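User: Structure please.
Assistant: Input sequence and predicted structure:
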Amino acid sequence: MLSPAETAQSVSGGLNHKATMPLLSVLFLSIMAGGSIALGDIFWAHSTVGVAKASSPGVANFLGGIAFSVGLMMVVFFGGHLFTSSVMSGVSTYDKKLPFGKMASYWAIVWIFNFVGAIIIAYMYYKSNLGLKYDGEILKHFVALGVGKTSLGFEEAFIRGIFCNVFVCMAVWAAIAAKDTAGKILAIAFIVGAFVASGYEHCVANMFIISEGLFAKAHYLAQAGGDMHALSELVHHIPVEKLEALNIQNFFLKNLLPVTLGNIIGGVFFVGIIGFMSHKPDMK
């Protein structure tokens, strides 16, 4: 595997290259990355349905974390542009290779088109009716997940975002360091699995999860004839006030905003710049 100093150089050079790719390539690969993370979320949901009740929450978290990591593997091996790892292009800006304005516009484009990919998969998954398997437990679970994520306080969502992207960027860092496919897979699986099992917040994963929660809420609300109390009965007695909090405004202001900011801090500073600064004396 590469040494830490060689890896830091590769991160800086590689992210600078990705940030300066042709716009059309960035758009398509950003949509692909958002969709890949969404597919990892679906694998996680299908892998853990009923496990917490039948076994334990810890086992469900571990299995779900490993399952979700497939999404990042797809991103890494296909060369996708994922916002949470793309923020490490801040290292290239710090290294004076990438202008700040170019970095900021790159981040904005990737974030927006990750969202596009996530929403496309959320809608397609909803229309597939796969969420209605197991007596609809998967679709109901997305309602509960969406409620939980849009009910977080700003501070807790922000801190969970920091923790999340320390793990995600370390997974990408380790995958860059590994020289063979098996090493890259193991690095991603266990490091990403740790972030998911711990309950941290990933803005792109949330783009899919909360979107799916909104689709699921609308689905069951239609079944309930528009009655919020009847909806509460259908989705395992989630309180009405919490169901009302699952809306587009809270999606952006109470989750995506603090989580995105936390992801930036965790990826750029706690991993990217600190890693680059620390190993710069050893770089050739």
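Residues 118 and 244 are 23 Å apart (CA to CA).
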